From TrEMBL:
The keyword Manganese applies. Pathway: Purine metabolism; IMP biosynthesis via de novo pathway; N(1)-(5-phospho-D-ribosyl)glycinamide from 5-phospho-alpha-D-ribose 1-diphosphate: step 2/2. It catalyses: 5-phospho-beta-D-ribosylamine + glycine + ATP = N(1)-(5-phospho-beta-D-ribosyl)glycinamide + ADP + phosphate + H(+). Its cofactor is Mg(2+); Mn(2+). Residues 121-333 form the ATP-grasp domain. It is an enzyme of class 6 (ligase). Keywords: ATP-binding, Ligase, Manganese, Metal-binding, Nucleotide-binding, Purine biosynthesis. SUPFAM superfamilies: Glutathione synthetase ATP-binding domain-like, PreATP-grasp domain, Rudiment single hybrid motif. It comes from the Bacteria. GO terms for biological process: 'de novo' IMP biosynthetic process; purine nucleobase biosynthetic process. Its EC number is 6.3.4.13. The gene is purD. This is Phosphoribosylamine--glycine ligase.
Amino acid sequence: MPAESADNSSIPATKKVLIVGNGGREHALAWKLAQSPQVAQVFVAPGNAGTAIDATNVSIEASDKPGIIKFAIENEIAFVVVGPEAPLVDGLVDDLQAAGIRAFGPSAAAAELEGSKVFCKNLLRASNIPTAEYQTFRTASDASRFIKDRYPDSEQDVPVVVKADGLAAGKGVIVCSTRSQALDAINRIAGVREFGEAGDVLIIEERLMGQEASVLAITDGSTIITLPAAQDHKPAYDGDLGPNTGGMGAFCPTPLIDAEMMARIERDILVPVVHAMKRSRRPFRGILYAGLMLTAAGPKVLEFNVRFGDPECQPLLMRMKGDLCEIIEAVIDGRLADVDPPEWDERPSICVVMASEGYPSAYEKGRVIKGLDKAAEMSDVKVFHAGTQNIGTTVINNGGRVLGVTAIGNSISDAKLKAYKAVKEIRWPGAWCRKDISDKAL
């Protein structure tokens, strides 16, 4: 395993921390924060079968603001880490701070950077930050008319991406190549409302060509610490085929982004966004996640998220050395400039997501998962739970993305070998995964 923490042995382990969420990201955060010499106990609300091993689960849903606030006050929680995007967009950090509770994550106003793709695109355009050209529409008929007028020949290529404006669990983005695909995507989002209120407004933007990468940064609104770049695998199937998902795996670092490219991303994208948010009176504190397309003209923004990516968080934290608690508290207190950036294990890591049969569409829950103990015994491997639940001593699948099998190795291929060896130990009826996670790096 990577080095667990810096030497803060002089600081007593007295702090109690609450993490909000129940995914693989939250399990990774709980696992990492539990290693801090300052942290005495980690709670996760509501958590999953994995967080029950590395922390203490609390039966409070992420959407239950009064319950979270009450628990934090009664248990003298030092700070709350809000994992998922929905409670951030819903203003959980604002409500926690109003109750006198320290919280890590952006305000509701700042979280609109992810909560509304239209807000994000307009901010990027106004700040001259490179991104795809786009148009916004409020009705399916207007959007369909735009496609038919711009592409009158039904046989011609239509390289566009159709996006729901609001949150859609990573699935409201439809990549199109033909006119019929674009019209179908418009109907799904704004016609039959497949993604609900997220489709009240939709975006049609040019389809950028290149390779995707994810660059995450920690910021207190003034100082930025950029984390090693990762690559996510959004499409469901091998070869980047099939529908978009919340992410089927990730690896870190990606060879696509060297020091020169990272400096360019910081200069042209990350710093300008933080400044733009400050000018908009929406100062950003927390995790700023840039989803990028590395085009022939340079890096361009596909999207911004306002929290750790899932599954990017898992391989990132496998490599992080030092005390995550120290960094989080520095962000909360607005003193990130006083903290040294974290060191990183030189070895790369990869995360392979094991999913339920049918995901990202309908899937069955309640299937017994076997082999977790064998996988846990493997060297340099950590199985982060996402859609799991304990029923007595049995672990069952309780979601679409079920496990994030994460490994660190001397090379990408070594990490991949270890991860997939662990995957082979784990089974339940209908379990599946992509077989090509990290192959882009090879």
